[in-house]
Amino acid sequence: MSPRRAGKAVSWVIGVLAIAIVGVILSLTLGDRSTTAQVVDAADMHTVGRGDFEIMIPASGELVAGSQVEIRNLLETRAVITEVVGEGSFVRKGDIILRLADDELVDRIKDGEDKVQTSESSVIAAEQSLAIRQSTMASDLEKADLQIEIANLDLKAWEEGGVVTARQKLELDIETARINRDRTVRRAADAEKLLGNGWVSFDEYEADRIAMIEAEARVKEFELARTIYENYTIKQEEATKRSAVEQSLAEKGRVRQRHEAEIVKIEADVESAHFKRDTAIERLDELKEQLKACIVEAPSDGLVVFASSLSGGERRGRGDDPPPQVGTELRQNELVMILPDTSRMIASMKVGEALSGRIKEGQSAVIYSDSVPGTAIPGTVLGVSVLAEGGGWRDPNRRDYTVRVLLDADPALGLKPSMRCRGEIVLGQVENAITAPIQSVFRAGPLAYVYTTSEGGFAQTAVKIGRASEMEVEIVSGLEEGEGVLLRRPTAGEIVSEIEVKTGEGGFGGGRPSGRPSGRPGGQPAGKPAGVAAAGKPESAGTS
Q: Can you list the alpha helix ranges (DSSP code H) found in 199-251?
């Protein structure tokens, strides 16, 4: 064969092979599309049907006791622990859980008994004083005339002797002070000269100057005393003396009135003595009650939890303080321990601000404790906190509300306060609605859609969604009972039909929607469903 013919033969063979390869590729592609629906795993498909489901809110938190009794130090004196029950013990009503030292109280009770006896004696003395005053009133009336004479004599003695004597004494004091002042002035002047010549020390010179200053002040003091006496004291004494005369000249009835006033005062003293006695008795009774408080009995059944173990709220001090033990000194009214009633447990859980308004008292819930994770505990919502709690420095914009759920728990579960828990709060019930798994719904902007089976693959089908739970979503329109939906995002080769999505006002854009699935693959819930507000509240999305 010539080279030319050989080249043509090779070209022909290459062309035939290329045509064969293209045919195989086309055959495989068309065959893949035609058989896609048959090779999809049955676990990836779901048949839409009509059914019921509950709308629930997930929450987490910790368990708290429905009620608890606080054990505090009620002593007003120094309190030292001499005996304390072990933490974690379950005590019955009447069990001794705490003993405090009572030596100081015993001594104070003895002192209190002495005060009671003293106050009793004071009462007797006051009553006797009242009787004496009443008996002497009559004799004092007879002395009224004598008091008149005495008052007159006193006034006369003051006018003729007292005033003169006082003035003479003041003048004498002033004159003596002036002479002493002049003497000290001369002495200070001499000392200054001697100091210049070196005959006296500076301390001696200063002592003379101080004596001079004191003498000058003494003169001013006596002069001021004379001024005060002449302007004020003499008038005061005169008014007093004349008033005494006027009072003594009053009728004997004035004497009677004065005695009656004294009697009233004594009667007040009697009443005061009775009050002091009653107060002493009351204080003694309080001390005896304090003595009883040295022995603390459990007021109810409960689990012993020391205040030092509390995670928040009131505690004994710093977080590293040791638990109460023998020898520990307690402050007045200090919280020592609590006795939570574990027969009535409450789940205290946090929910987001957006969900808090949908939770109402009386709604049912299911709680799972980390201590018994496989046991569902039914509960009833007691209420939602009035104010939200911040997220702290980790998340300052976060606001959570506390939901309290009363548990209907079996005591055999052994639930205790502070155990971690999670739960689901039932907000409502969706009944007789077309439903689909939440992971089968996808979003592209405002559009919600699913993938339904179609000839040769899967087609995007727009749906309008309603209420939703963590697992299922209500299909308001777009699907019928019996239709199959894909539970995952299909591959590019499996999609045979796509929805045109609006890209702007007055126009549509082609191509595939860019939305993500609204749930996790494999049927695991992924939080809020696409196109559905928190806890199943529908958005305004619908078919385009």
A: 202-228, 234-248
Residue 476, domain CATH: 2.40.420.20
Tokens of 225: 């005393």
Between CA 326 and CA 333, with CA 328 as vertex, the angle to 5 degrees is: 120
Range of the domain at 84: 74-101+294-339
Give the DSSP per-residue string, 322-380. Answer: PPP-TT-EE-TT-EEEEEE-TTSEEEEEEEEHHHHTT--TT-EEEEEETTEEEEEEEEE
Instruction: Decide: 499 and 460 in contact? Cβ < 8 Å.
Output: yes
Could you tell me if residue 289 is inside a domain?
A: no
Tokens 């719904």 label which residue? 441
Domain count, the chain: 4
End-of-domain residue from the set 402, 428, 454: 428
Rounded CA-CA distance 211/316 in Å is: 65
Place of tokens 């195989």: 24
9 within a domain of the structure (yes/no): no
State residue 395 phi and psi, 5-degree precision: -145, 80
Kind of pairing between the strands at 389-391 and 447-454: unpaired
Q: Where are the beta strands (DSSP E) in 66-145?
A: 68-72, 79-84, 90-91, 96-100
The CATH number covering residue 319 comes to 2.40.50.100
Q: Please indicate, yes or no, if residue 23 is contained in any of the structural domains.
A: no
Instruction: Answer whether 406's CB lies under 8 Å from 378's CB.
Output: no
pTM over 0.70: no
Tokens of 194: 């001697």
Q: What gap in Å lies between CA 239 and CA 235, rounded to an integer?
A: 6
DSSP label of 535: G
Per-residue HEC secondary structure of 415-476 comes to CCCCCEEEEEEEEEEEEEEEEEEHHHCEEECCEEEEEEEECCEEEEEEEEEEEECCCEEEEE
Three-class DSSP category at 270: helix
478 Ramachandran zone, left/alpha/beta (phi>0; psi -120 to 50): left
Same domain, yes or no: 378 and 401: yes
Across-strand partners of 459? 452, 497
Task: Encode pLDDT of 232-265 as tens digits.
Answer: 988 898 888 888 888 778 777 777 888 888 889 9
Evaluate whether residue 387 is within a structural domain: yes
Burial of 238 (0-12, 13-18, 19+ CB in 10 A): middle
pLDDT in tens, 307-359: 888 755 444 444 556 888 898 889 889 899 888 888 889 999 999 888 888 88
